[in-house]
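Margin note: ligand = heme C.
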Amino acid sequence: MKKSLITLTILLMTGAFAYAEDRQMHHHAMMQSKKTTEDSRTSLKLKAPMRDHQLSMMREHLRAVNDIVSDIATGKFEQASQTAHQKLGLTPAMKKMCNRYSNADFKKLGLAFHRSADELGDVLTSGDVNKSLNALHVTMNYCVQCHATFRQ
Ligand code: HEC
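Resulting structure:
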């Protein structure tokens, strides 16, 4: 009787240890996966009105890229060029907007992005699909690079 009680105690303790170890490993895995999905981008620390404004500008940028792709596909290069210059290029309004950001690297990247869009606008007038797509790719690299580096 006494011997079986000891055996039972040992069995229960082994089970408890195994459970604790399993929990710890699970926790460790969770922490690791959290690390990989953690947002380590630089925050611009934007205030509410600026946040909404930035996001609405961004949706406009996406729409412009969409229009340009469609215009290239249907051979409307003049139209695509105008969209690039007017919606993505470094217009005085766009320049003013970029200069409102306090983060110097963000500002620099933003201005370089808009300048690349003006180059895209120029290349588009050639009517050359490959050259145009290449120029669009250069501009879109700025979208990708900035999104990987900064958040609101
Ligand atoms: C200089 C930096 C920069 C460039 C260049 C840039 N963006 Fe953004 N974009 C941002 C930031 C910052 C956010 C907010 C991201 C966050 O806080 O998670 C954003 C958000 C967005 C969003 C989300 C909008 C929403 O309503 O949630 C879209 C779409 C977007 N960008 C499209 C684009 C496209 C398309 C381009 C290029 C043609 C582009 N952006 C270029 C900085 C940039």
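The chain has a mean pLDDT of 87.
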